[in-house]
């Protein structure tokens, strides 16, 4: 995993840097789901005033990563089962469009590099290393679709999904998940759009189910429902 982003912020574009640092800390699981964000503590940690912290928290609330509770403060979002189902419904629809476009003109060298990695994964692979490659691959699909609006919408759904992947990945068979990636890449390379879409949808439905299983086991019934 990369180094802790919660280090003093040094940049002329302070607001964006502070936003990125807090966002990355949440995505990486350093600030955990359900945890309260303390403006004072974050300002001290990042060596900035509370103003850019407050602005970053408001911006994060707009993306859905943070939830603002009146008179209580800001908390990292805890999803419900409906949230997960709704989020994956959107993700599957958008990534399906991305894969359809990539099948027509996907960058071959990049696809082959991902294929080589996923084909090498076994049960001894570090889950965090796998997660980084999985994230990179799906980001590649998003970035390669040549549609800036689709790219933006998918990027926002990825941020929310990544909140919980560090936890739900524990229940995933990395070897099987990697072979799903390999089969998907092969279908894209062969420009078999119908097969690629089917494989992508099955893969994402499995990821959704793993996340739902994690939430069911990890959260109180009142929060998971």
UniProtKB/TrEMBL annotation:
InterPro entries: GntR_C, TF_FadR/GntR_C, Tscrpt_reg_HTH_GntR, WH-like_DNA-bd_sf, WH_DNA-bd_sf. Keywords: DNA-binding, Transcription, Transcription regulation. The keyword Membrane does not apply. The keyword Transcription regulation applies. It comes from the Bacteria. Residues 12-79 form the HTH gntR-type domain. GO terms for molecular function: DNA binding; DNA-binding transcription factor activity. This is Transcriptional regulator, GntR family.
